[in-house]
Every structure is written in structure tokens, then in C-alpha cells.
Amino acid sequence: MTAGSRAAIIAIGSEMLGPLRRDTNSLWLTGRLEEAGFAIVRKSVVGDDLDEIARELSCASSAARWIFTTGGLGPTADDLTVAAVARWARRPVHRDEGFVAAMRQRWERRGVPMPVVNEKQADFIEGARVLANPRGTAPGFWLENAGVQILILPGVPSEMREIFEQAIEPELGRAGTGTTRRRVLRIAGMAESAVEELVAPLYEKWNADPVTILASPGEVELHLCARGEPVEAEARLAAMEMDFRQVLGHRVHGRDGEDLAATVGRLLKEKRKTLALAESCTGGLVSALLTDVPGASAYFLGTVVSYADSAKETILDVDRDTLRLHGAVSEEAAREMARGARRRFGSDLAAAITGIAGPDGGSEEKPVGTVFFALTDREGREETKKRLYVGDRTTVRRASSMFSLEMIRRFMTVVA
After folding, report:
1. Domain containing 32: what range?
2. What are the beta bridge partners of residue 95?
3. Domain endpoint, select from 234, 253, 272
4. DSSP string of 345-378?
């Protein structure tokens, strides 16, 4: 990695330091910059404060030759990016009256007068190239200062992307060296430590290329990365992926960036099968994941959220004696729920989940986190599983939903 291909991204805005707003611009920029051959070495979020923005510019410029900022270009008093960059670069700011007139005309074409505060968006840094914004009033800027390229972009995502694609990206091909290629391998129904144990022997072989393992409830992701000239990086990444897939085998799901619900949907469509669900502790979460995929109506018939025992009896035909002898959270109840859902909807395949998500309701025999799963198909083949999850209610429900989808995927792969 050369010094000239190192980049930093600074998201500016106090709202992103709170719990209500996220910085999504940095993720988008990272993808585009990696394609252009840049290595992102620093990302940060800074509030609307002149001193803090200037301090972060100094930190970023010590690590990277390219700095991309987003946000802080609006007309209000807390939009301070231009002033902060000018202070840091020791450049004067001047108001461009021609730009003020052009902004005023845009407002007038909409039939409203331009507020005086918008004139602030015509404050330009000495020596900066102005980058036109077709979607809004705040322009972007490109400034070189002491060998550092500073690209100043609006925070509104559509405006930021338009300026980047039209005015910046065409010129980046001459700046970056090589490119970055990535793959994500997804594994559901396994603990992070179990996945790590399987793949750890490969780390030494691929020690020159970063491998990151990330865990979320019910799923583990392996992020593979290769950097270099496009053809060489793609070939190395393909070889790396093959090694990891050989070790993980059928545990890896999806292709071309599919999530687990999309993979299940694809398999159902390919095999021309339909699916129905009976959910208790997950409260319809599996159904929500499936129907997030466009076109799910082609294979997903519906669900019964049988939260109460009475719903299990009356809608799914779970035997009252089953509930009395074994309880609603049991292998027996899960099996009868799956059978009932398949009969109710007339589906080829049906899955059921029943468990204790917590925080209350557990016992010594069946502690919080106990979940039973069942699958059945039109030919009468059945499968049941039990899992004990650790975590809060959200974690148990999410992990259970992912495990149910993984059971369906494997059933479709091996049996259906």
C-alpha cells in the first residue's frame, strides 16, 4: 500500500454522536473508494465544533493523503465544515455573489424567496475547486493542502453520491493503486468459536490477506479481503474463498451476497416447493425475514403465530394431552405445530418454533433460552431439534429465527 492510496473519511454532524442517527455515507464511500484502489485507514464521526473538526483533519492528514468529509455544508449556524477546513488549511473564505444569485434563481423558480441564511452556502475556500450539486444548494469542494487532497461533500446521501459519481470518481482512477476485493461467507446455526476452530488452520496460509470473523445472533460471517491489481486480487480472493469453503463445506449458505432468507427462497423456487410456518416464541420474525425478500409469495404461503396454547390447539390441532403431558415448549408440541401448519396451508414443507425467550417463564428443566424446532414435509419426513440460547429476549428470538431458516435450508438441500 502506497502512501498516496491511503484515505480517511470524516462524517461531520453532532446528530451522529447520539443514538438516533447513523453514519451511512462512510459505508457507501468505502465501497467506491476500495474499487478505485484506495485503502481506508481511518474513519471518524465528529460533532459540529470548529476545534474538533480541525483537530480531526490534523489526525486524518497524518495517516492519509486523501480525506473525504461528509456533512456540515447546510445554511444553519451549526454547519461549520467550510469554516473549519479553511481554518485548518489557513485559507481565507470569500462569498461568491454569482453563486448567491444562481441559488436565488433556483428558489424563485420554485415560487418561494430564498432565506437569507442560504447565502452562507456561497462561502468558498480560497483555492478550492467547487463541485456542482445538481440535487441541492450545497456544493462540494476539492482542495489540495500541503500534499493532502480534501474532498468536502454534503451529508445528504443522494447529494453526496451524485457529486462523488459525477465530479470525483472519474478522476480517482489515476490516484489509487490496485483495488480491493471482498467476499463474505455466512454460516448459520453455529457458534463463533466453533467456526473459528474450523478455519483457524487457514490463517497462516493467508496471513498476508485480512480475514475477519464477525458474529450476530444465529449467524457468523467470515469477511475475506484481497488487495492488488484487479486480476491478481480477484484470483487470490477466489483461491482464498475456495479454501475456506472446502473447510466449512455445507455450513456456508448463500451465493452472490444472498442472506439466509433469500437462500431459502431460492431453493424453494428451484425445487418448486411451498412453505408454511408455525411460530410461537419468535412471534412472526421468521415470516418477516422471508417476506423481506421480493417475490416471496411464489413459495411462502403463510404463518400461524400461535402464541397462546389455545391457538396451538384450535388452529394447529396440537393435542391437548400433548400440551398437558409435555408442555407447549417441547419436541412433541413443535412436531404437532409443524404438522398442523402444513395441513392448514396445504404446503409442501412446514416448520415450527416454540420456546422460552424470557426474561421470565423458565424452569430448572426448561430454562430461559430453551427452544424446540420441527420440520415436516408432504411425504411425512420429519426432523426436530432442541437448542439452548444464552442472551436477552431479542437475542433468543433472532437466533431461533436464523436456526429455523438454516434447518429449512439444510432440509431442502439434503432431503427435499
Report:
1. 3-172
2. 123
3. 253
4. HT-SEEEEEEE--SSS---SSS-TTEEEEEEEET
The SS3 call for residue 306 is coil
pTM value is 0.72
Alpha-carbon gap, residue 272 to 265, rounded angstroms: 10
Are residue 238 and residue 265 in the same domain, yes or no? no
Peptide bond into 359 cis (omega under 30): yes
20: its cell numbers = 438516533
Check whether residue 80 and residue 112 sit in a common domain. yes
Q: Which amino acid is at 76?
A: T
| pLDDT tens figures, 113-137 | 999 999 999 999 999 999 999 988 8
How many angstroms separate the CA atoms of 252 and 92, rounded?
56
**Measured on CA atoms in the order 165, 168, 170, 176, is the torsion positive or negative?**
negative
Q: With 70 as the cut, is the pLDDT of residue 239 above it?
A: yes
Residues 208 and 357 in one domain: no
200/233 same-domain check: yes
Give the residue among 342, 340, 374, 382 at the shortest CA–CA distance from 355.
374
pLDDT band at 173 (very low <50, low <70, confident <90, very high): low
The domain boundary residue, chosen from 172, 199, 227: 172
**Are residues 62 and 106 both part of a single domain?**
yes
